[in-house]
Amino acid sequence: MDDSIIGTCAECGSEFLKSKSKMEELCPECAYWLYGYENCKHIFKAGKCTICLWDGSKSDYIKSLSSEF
Ligand SMILES: [Zn+2]
Ligand SMILES: [Zn+2]
């Protein structure tokens, strides 16, 4: 497995490191909100998570879910 493959999240449109997400098509953040998978403990530097490369994007749907808390 190549752990440096970068995908584009189908939900929020952010790039993410595929090896850090349980879902092929979703970043760890969206996989967490949509499917309850373990989220990345994002560490942001220069607008991107240094672990999974998520850029902080949230789809309207994820926003509506996460704002309930
Ligand atoms: Zn996403
Ligand atoms: Zn992350």
Could you outline the blueprint of secondary structure elements for this entry?
Elements: E1 6-8, E2 15-17, H1 28-35, E3 44-45, E4 48-49, H2 60-66
This protein binds zinc ion (2 copies).
Termini separation comes to 36 Å
Major beta sheet, specifics? 2 strands, antiparallel
> What is the strand tally?
4
Total number of domains: 1
**Taking all residues together, what is the mean pLDDT?**
94
Task: List the ions, cofactors and other small molecules found in this model.
Answer: zinc ion
How big is the Rg?
11 Å
Write a structural description.
With 69 residues, this protein is α+β, with helices and mostly antiparallel strands. The chain has one domain (6-64). It has helices spanning 28-35, 60-66, and strands spanning 6-8, 15-17, 44-45, 48-49. Strands 1-2 form a two-stranded antiparallel sheet. The radius of gyration is 11 Å and the shape is globular. The structure holds zinc ion (2 copies). Residues 9, 11-12, 14, 26-27, 29-30 line the site of one zinc ion.
